[in-house]
Amino acid sequence: MKRLLIPLILLIFATPAYTATIYKWVDKDGAVNFTDDISKVPPSYRNRVETEERKDVKEEVTPRPPQAVTREKEPEGIKKDIYGCDETCWREKVRPWKAQLKEATENLEKLRNKYAEETEQFGRTGYVSRARYQDKANKYTEERKKYEGQIAEANERLDKLSKEAQESKADPAWLE
């Protein structure tokens, strides 16, 4: 019995531990994809890949055929860029930045009008202390810089998206 038990114990501890790295990403259609080869991940999704280390995963001797993901056939005539992103995809990328640009521009215009009204009101009342006037001016400058920063950020991001669209050969009209 000892003769059989000792080799068995040695065999158990001598078995190498395997690890596998699994890459997971979600595509534009919301489908979750998995692979064990990073080169199989489309370039446009590589910055969104989640990795998971699987311990004690033994490599299979015979590879399994890849499981086909059934998707609805896309209607003919839908244009896509070289990465498979269509007009809807690009419009969704641009939408939040256009909304931020519009909102910040409107807020800046409201702020300018409010400041103009307040300074005009100061002129009508006659004497206004320099400290009070300076306080209003400082608040105005602070708020104006905030809105101008939001506008600059939105414009910068929209420019970057425009360049990405050109590189991926997307229709420029999709960004409008």
Label this structure with key terms.
176 residues; mainly alpha; three-stranded antiparallel sheet; 3 helices; 51% helix; 10% strand; elongated
What does this structure look like?
The chain is mainly alpha-helical and 176 residues long. The protein contains three helices and three strands; from the N terminus they run H-E-E-E-H-H. It has helices spanning 2-14, 87-125, 130-167; strands at residues 19-26, 32-35, 50-55. A three-stranded antiparallel β-sheet has the order 2-1-3, with no helix packed on it. The longest helix has 39 residues, at 87-125. The chain is elongated and about 110 Å long. The mean pLDDT is 77.
The structural class is: mainly alpha
Rounded to the nearest angstrom, the distance between the terminal CA atoms is: 80 Å
Average pLDDT value? 77
Number of helices: 3
Number of strands: 3
What general outline do the C-alpha atoms trace?
elongated
* Beta-strand residue fraction: 5-15%
Specify the helix fraction band: 40-55%
The largest pleated sheet is described as: 3 strands, antiparallel
* Helix-strand pattern: HEEEHH
- Side-by-side strand order of the widest sheet: 2-1-3
Contiguous uncertain segments of 5+ residues: none
- Rg over CA atoms: 30 Å
Task: Provide a brief overview of the structure.
By secondary structure, this protein is mainly alpha-helical.
